[in-house]
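Annotated sample (chain length 426).
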Amino acid sequence: MTPVELAPAFFAATVVILLTCRLVVLVAGRFGQPPVVGEMIAGVLLGPSLFGLIAPGVSDAVFPAELKPMLYVAGQIGLVALMFAAGYKFRAHAGRGLAGTAVVVSSAGVLIPLLLGVGLTVLVHGHVDIFVDGVSVWVTAAFVGVALAITAFPMLARIITERGLAGSRFGSLSMASGATDDVVAWLLLAGVLSAASGERGPVLKAVCGSLLFVAVLFLLGRRLLAWVVTYPALRDDTRLLFLVAVLFGAAWFTDTIQLYAVFGAFCVGMAMPRHETSEQLVRTTQSVTQVVFVPMFFTYSGLNTRFDVFGDPAVLAFGAAAIVLAVAGKFGGCWAAARLRGEPASVAVRVGALMNARGLMQLIALNIGLSAGIVGEELFTALVLVALVTTVMTVPVLSWLDRRDARSRTAAGEPHNSPETVPTWS
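Output written by the structure step:
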């Protein structure tokens, strides 16, 4: 298709994506799910697993193959804006007294699922058709391990802020642990891609480039952002222009070093000064991008998801086993680590529930693996199932814990203070 033909195709697909996402978000909201869960489900429904199965001709007309790169780029714009806001909110709620516990929790949340994922993949080699020809079993196993180790930090941040948990001990601890978890997981992913290519260049570029990026951003970039926010002669549209230039520049650099655009955006959010103008700029970048561009990323992922691969019982069994190990490793590991650090049981179990959500970030990793040629349709779909299940279960588990604790306090005649209202710092 020519650019002239692609433009109307893009607009038509956008209408379908936005209306479908809004409808599914409304339905999911009735079950207490945040919008991002509805958008994930909508993306899968628009793919070959439902829309392409029911009306393959219409699906091909709405989402021609030539359109997929445009959806990918548009989705990246949404992710950059989303992670920028997540970084800004993280800095607002981070505080003293969390560093040691956050490191222990995030370490357990990475190491245990990583080892379980590697073990499962090595165990099923030769028995389940999830391996790509020419890709080492150890590369595939490492990729599965990293995918299970990832936490959906943007979703975690969204749940925490939407439920008013930002001032709670477990909310702030989960934010700090989730951010640390994902930085480590993305460095591990760079290592997997390096091993897949047989070269040391990618991982060295990621590590050295990330150190350079952080140094430049926090030594020079933070001053530039402070000037953009506070210089009185700048108009609002000029402030936004400079901010977007810094944000996209950071996304370009971290994409180039294979740490990926989302973490450049997250770091820029962390570097933003705390100021009323900053709040306005964050809201402005979110107002359109979150509504229009983020759903395109989920649709792009959904177009690569084929649940018909579960017609093979072995692939279905692998997906089910991966879900069990993902929950046991992340939920159980983070809970145990928090308890070992002396956190109350009510805090530890909620940290485990929040850290267990993988949604958005795992989908990003899966798309990277798919584009790198180390993930096939079967493994991609099985891990998408892991992302969906572990993400969907987060809010119901938190709500059940709240109800359980409320009943316990009522029976004991105690005041109705939940962990959501417990101050973050003692």
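Annotation: The first helix runs from residue 3 to 29.
Annotation: The chain has one domain: 3-412.
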